[in-house]
Amino acid sequence: MRLNNIKTYIYQLFAVLLISGIFVSCNEDDEAGPDPVAAFEVTTDPELREGETITFSATSSENAVTFNWSFGDGNSDVGETVTHVYEAPGSYEVTLEASADGKRDVTTQTVTIGGIIPTPSFTVENADNLKVGQAVAFTSTTTDATSIVWNFGDAGNSTSTEANPTFTYLTPGDYTVSLTATGTGGEATSEQTITIQANQFELYFIDNDNLKIRKIALSDTEVIVDVFDLPGFSFGLAYDDVNEELYFTDDDNATLYKNSLDGSSQTEIATGLNGGRDIALDIANDRAYVVERSSDQITQIDLTDNSTSALYSVSDDEFFLLPVGLDIHNGELFATAVDFDAETVWTGNTDGSGISKIIDYGGGGFGYGIEVDKVNDKIYFDDNDGGQIFRSDLDGSNVEKVGNTTDRTYGIAIDSESGKYYWAGRDGIIRVANLDGTEEEILAETGVDIRGMIIRKAE
Questions:
Q1: Which domains, ranges and CATH numbers included, belong to the chain?
Q2: 0.85 cut: is pTM over it?
């Protein structure tokens, strides 16, 4: 009887424990809740780009407590809403792990990050006063570019890849300048039209009737302005554009002078000249060259101490007689000579070597003035016998007529920028034509004895 009671008790206890476990298990299942579901949205910008802040939001996830993000570029974050910046364009797998009560769910989306399209822009220094022959400075203010290319809109389609280039225009007009910028997302172009204005030029000439240096503004040829008085009858005239000084030979005083443009600082350079005529300047090397007609020589002057020496004379060539005109280009002197058998054009190096006649009387006649077009490598010279101006190559070949004269012509001036040249004789008539001699016309009839002439770019 006692044993049966013990068995009954054990069975009853086991039943109670079994029932309690079932109830506990049911309660635990009821408290665990539903499984989490991962879902997210990305910033709704039309196009995602590198360098921009992108928002990722998991607010559409269900039953989640924690949110772990992986952005596909090695970076991660935690939070229901997070932001991220991609440093390079491309496609990235973004993963969200949403979890709760030991349960988790994972979802992935591919995001495509576009590159940056740059914003090109630039400024032009002194844009309202751009002149032919002056360097124009461009400054890029472009953003987000990996490279840039400029096109300056000239006839040669000149380009540059510098950030802040300069460019020099040789003819006036309107030019469309473009700046194309390339970025990781493509390219864009900015354009501006700039106006290059023609320079204003003045002709300076020797007036021996009134013993003055005078000038004419080519923008108003009706007005002739006195510049300064000359000490005596003069021939040669040359311009130092570095120091803005005029050099002239005074035959009455046998002296080479220089003076400022306002005539306030006349200075003797060399005295005792024997029939001083034309002048050539090499300011970069501190040299001046003067024709001494009566000594049949070209004299070199050291401008550092004004010492003189004979560079060429009749002792170098027996036919180098009565030189008159003179010019210099690339270390080479070009001269005219007017004695019989000396005509017409000679050349020699500035070191005193290589003097030779390159155009004889049969090819170039007999004349006085000479000028070199230093841009186009041409010689212009007077043929007084034929009443004409000739042009040739630097070696004396291809001689051609490019103008007419009515008296000895000492003054010739070339403006390569505008494609014009000017010449004047002792009769005071100043003529102008295109460099090839076309469209010749009379610029001014001064009525005075004109000798040397130069052209100067006005301020």
A1: 41-113 (2.60.40.10), 122-197 (2.60.40.10), 201-457 (2.120.10.30)
A2: no
